[in-house]
Each structure stands twice: as structure tokens, then as C-alpha cells.
Write a structure and sequence with these properties.
By secondary structure, the chain is an alpha/beta fold. Helix content is about 40%, strand content about 15%. It contains five helices and six strands, in the order ββαβαβαβαβα. The strands form two sheets. The chain has a four-stranded parallel sheet. It has a two-stranded antiparallel sheet with strand order 1-2. Strand 4, helix 3 and strand 5 (about 125-130) form a beta-alpha-beta unit. Helix 1 runs antiparallel to helix 5 and helix 2 (about 65-75) crosses helix 5. The radius of gyration is 26 Å and the shape is elongated.
């Protein structure tokens, strides 16, 4: 089989295989697979991430005054829909973004985790306001969590008490940048 390989020398010193047979076909198929993977993976990954970052469907966990600011951001003056954040959706199994707004107590923590676990992958979390980030004014209470990062992996923190709609929009834009840089799964 080795005798079936016909090679020729190029002037640059490169060896070229002129005949593909059973011996060198595996090498060719392996290289072809690598070339296809590299040619399709990056553009397809960019298209998938583009679709993800311009169609975020949020679940709202609203327990305090931050929900009013989120309502203002959804209104006509700020209009978060132009940034790809769709209004609240009915099913958790169709949402990919959790926006936690306000104080989370120890009794609510397992339910918040249940909501997070019911969402499909990939899923993202925004902690909005001082209460969701650090416990806020009630940080020394026995039943208030000192931030949700102990129960959920937070992607973006939006500080403030309550944060203004512009700050929420900036946090959403930071999340979109993070999604853009992610490798698609």
C-alpha cells in the first residue's frame, strides 16, 4: 500500500501527494474535518450569540422598589425592547434571564433557586439594586440574604437604591457584551 503513494517535489521543497488511497485518505478526512469545523464553528457561533443577545426574555423577581424602576425602563421613555429585552413572558421554560429586584429572604431563596433551575440553558442573572446585591437596608436582619450571589451565579450587578433606568440599560448592555464574547454551547 505504501507503494501506491505517488509524491512529487515542488520547487519550494514541499512534498505533494498526487494519489489519495486507503493509506492517506484518513489523514485527508481528518484535515477536511478540521477545516470544516474551523470554517463553520466561528460564523455559526457568532450567529447563535447574536440571536441570544438580541432576544433576552426576562423573569422578574420583584420584591421592592426596584420593580418601579424596571417598569420605567420598560416604558416609552427608555424602552428596553430596543435593546433586545422582551417584556415579561408567561413561561419559565422560555425565559433565559432572571432579573432579581429587591430583598430576598431566606424563605424565598429556595423558590428563587427553583425558578432558576426551571429555565433552559444558557441562562443569565442580573442582580438589580442594593437589596439584591448586599441585602440593602436590611442586611443585619436574621432573615434577609446578604446578596443573591450565594444562591445564583450573578452575571451583572446593577447598583443603586433604586437604580435608575439608565443604569439598568447599561447593565443589560454589559450582559449583551458578555454574551457576545461567550463561546456557544
Amino acid at each position: 500500500m505504501v507503494d501506491d503513494i505517488v509524491t512529487s517535489k515542488k520547487p519550494e521543497g514541499l512534498t505533494v501527494i498526487n494519489k489519495i488511497n486507503a493509506h492517506n485518505a484518513n489523514v485527508f478526512v481528518g484535515k477536511l474535518g478540521d477545516m470544516l469545523y474551523k470554517a463553520v464553528d466561528k460564523p455559526l457561533g457568532m450567529a447563535i450569540n447574536w440571536g441570544r443577545l438580541w432576544s433576552l426574555w426576562p423573569v422578574h423577581i420583584e420584591t421592592a422598589c426596584c420593580s418601579v424602576e424596571f417598569g420605567a425602563a420598560s416604558g416609552p421613555r427608555y424602552d428596553v425592547e430596543r435593546f433586545g429585552i422582551i417584556e415579561a413572558f408567561g413561561s419559565l421554560r422560555a425565559c433565559d434571564l432572571v432579573v432579581v429586584q429587591g430583598t430576598i429572604t431566606r424563605k424565598m431563596a429556595p423558590r428563587l433557586r427553583l425558578v432558576y433551575d426551571q429555565m433552559p440553558e444558557p441562562k443569565y442573572v442580573i442582580a438589580m439594586g442594593a437589596c439584591a446585591i448586599t441585602g440593602g437596608l436590611y442586611f443585619d436582619s436574621y432573615n434577609v440574604l446578604p446578596g443573591i450571589d450565594g444562591i445564583l451565579p450573578v452575571d451583572v450587578y446593577v447598583p443603586g437604591c433604586p437604580p435608575r433606568p439608565e443604569t439598568l440599560i447599561q447593565g443589560c448592555m454589559l450582559l449583551q457584551e458578555k454574551i457576545k464574547r461567550m463561546k456557544p454551547r
